[in-house]
Specification:
By secondary structure, the protein is of the alpha/beta class. It has two domains: 173 residues, Rossmann fold (3-Layer(aba) Sandwich), CATH 3.40.50.300; 152 residues. It is 55% helix and 8% strand. It is built from 15 helices and six strands. Strands 2-3-1-4-5-6 form a six-stranded mixed beta sheet, sandwiched between helices. Strand 2 and strand 3 form a beta hairpin. Helix 8 packs antiparallel against helix 9.
């Protein structure tokens, strides 16, 4: 970026960066027998009720696709069936388009799963093995521990797929293993797609939530730069030029990253914690044009002069030095902090429940 970049050039560059970031998608295919809990796993990973639990995806139906915030999850039908023979299965479902595959099973690991995995290995595709409903793994005789049973399951999978394999043990009922599985998915993706996953998936650990916050901070800086650079008219009551539509879009993007729907915000308010109730009210209120104006007014006159230099490489010298950028950056940071506070409290409650 040139130090003498014009406002027009700044707008074009920032728009391009934001559009490129928002265009990144992650595609995940899940395969396994009916009843393995693939729908529940999809919902749990994303923190959204996307898939209808109990819906059949077996040998007689087509693939089911679910989307949230740039993540596409596809529940594949049975492999090598009369309707979907193995010879045409790959092309039929365009499996080259997927970034990662999840082999989900909840009982015995069978030949259908191993046959499909061998096809994936032949194609050099990434596949994670997920033993779902892990809370039901037990030895009724009491002779073997859960860890011993897990080890036996891993050995059985390794025997069938002809190589040592890690199995992720998850429970959609208790939440066990979901943090580790989500981390494994993230690590298996290239950087840009990894960021999309972290931004969109539900946080099951404090580390994941912290990574989500860092990505949102970057988003705030980019959007704040575009808000200021693309401004035409001063905002009433603020007397600083800011593009309000971009500011509201930024707030929506942050809220989506934390999965804060109206329902989840209401649930957070019902926790009965006054501070969280106030944060929830802020998130709803500031997410409108009128609320955004009120939030901007709070930061009128506050300077960020000392920090201008560090934002120049990102938004350009003219934009970084503008009052509109400084005010919008602070407003966006406040909205992010409120969203993060709600998500952090929800996570703390969930971790305490699983302890």
């Amino acid at each position: 970026m040139s130090s003498d970049e014009s406002i027009t050039e700044s707008v074009a560059r920032l728009k391009k960066q934001i559009e490129a970031s928002e265009a990144v998608t992650v595609s995940i295919a899940l395969f396994g027998r009916t009843g393995a809990g693939k729908s529940s796993l999809i919902n749990r990973l994303m923190g959204k009720n996307l898939a209808r639990v109990g819906a059949s995806t077996d040998t007689t139906v087509d693939a089911s696709t679910f989307q949230w915030n740039g993540v596409h999850l596809v529940d594949l039908p049975g492999f090598d069936t009369a309707r979907f023979p193995k010879e045409t299965f790959w092309e039929r479902f365009n499996l080259d388009s997927f970034d990662i595959f999840l082999c989900v099973f909840s009982d015995k690991f069978g030949s259908a799963e191993s046959d499909f995995f061998l096809k994936l290995r032949q194609k050099k595709r990434t596949c994670l093995f997920v033993r779902n409903k892990a809370d039901q793994v037990c030895d009724t005789s009491g002779e073997r521990s859960t860890n011993e049973l897990y080890g036996e399951i891993e050995k059985d999978v390794a025997r069938q797929v002809l190589e040592p394999t890690r199995v992720h043990f998850t429970s959609c009922a208790t939440g066990a293993g979901l943090a580790e599985l989500s981390d494994a998915i993230s690590k298996a993706l290239p950087k840009a797609k990894q960021e999309r996953w972290i931004e969109s998936a539900k946080a099951y650990s404090r580390e994941f939530l912290a990574a989500k916050e860092e990505l949102c901070k970057k988003k705030v800086r980019l959007y704040a730069g575009l808000c200021a650079a693309n401004a035409i008219n001063p905002v009433p009551g603020v007397d600083v030029a800011v593009d309000l539509s971009i500011l509201v879009a930024m707030m929506k993007a942050i809220r989506n990253a934390y999965g804060l729907s109206d329902q989840s915000i209401l649930k957070a308010k019902e926790l009965g914690i006054p501070a969280i109730a106030q944060l929830a009210n802020n998130v709803v209120r500031y997410g409108t044009r009128e609320g955004a104006v009120y939030l901007l007014q709070r930061f009128m006159g506050r300077e960020i002069t000392k920090e201008v230099a560090k934002y120049i490489p990102l938004v350009g010298q003219i934009v970084a030095a503008s009052a509109g950028f400084g005010i919008t950056l602070q407003a966006g940071g406040t909205y992010l902090a409120d969203c993060h506070g709600i998500a952090g409290e929800i996570l703390s409650r969930e971790l305490a429940f699983r302890a």
